[in-house]
Write a structure and sequence with these properties.
Radius of gyration: 15 Å
CATH class: Alpha Beta
Low-confidence stretches: none
Number of helices: 2
Shape: globular
Strand content: 35-45%
CATH superfamily: 2,3-Dihydroxybiphenyl 1,2-Dioxygenase, domain 1
Protein name: Putative enzyme related to lactoylglutathione lyase
Order of helices and strands: EHEEEHEEEE
GO molecular function: lyase activity
Mean pLDDT: 86
Keywords: Lyase
Number of domains: 1
Organism: Granulicella arctica
Helix content: 10-25%
Largest sheet: 8 strands, mixed
Structural class: alpha+beta
Length: about 120
């Protein structure tokens, strides 16, 4: 069934990502061995990642301060449903060893990322 199965991450623009990672590690004990905080839970198919992006990053629109990332069980199925509903969906898909990614734009104009983790 094509549906969202959890949150895949939160991405924030900050002035100094390295300094903010260090602050969170110092004050909250959050390690960042892969350039992001990774939280796992048995009910999710993949980990939840929190990453900091530089203010100039082009990964999502510079005018957008944050981007949501939702885990899905069927990336193409979810995106097909969004297209059928008239939602603006980016035709680009990306495949990595850790999963597949696609994007859509919500009614507020926010670019949202979908992630289908690898089994």
């Amino acid at each position: 069934m094509a549906q969202v199965t959890g949150i895949g991450g939160a991405f924030l623009r900050v002035k100094d990502p390295d300094a903010l990672y260090a602050w969170y590690e110092q004050h909250l004990g959050l390690a960042h061995p892969k350039g992001c905080f990774v939280f796992s839970h048995e009910t999710q198919r993949g980990n939840i990642a929190v990453s900091f992006f530089s203010k100039e990053s082009k990964y999502f629109p510079v005018s957008q301060p944050a981007m949501l990332n939702f885990q899905v069980d069927d990336l193409d199925g979810v995106l097909d449903k969004l297209v059928a509903a008239g939602v603006s969906v980016d035709p680009k898909r990306e495949d990595y060893s850790y999963g597949r990614f696609g994007w859509f734009t919500d009614p507020e104009g926010n670019r949202v990322e979908l992630w289908q983790p690898r089994p």
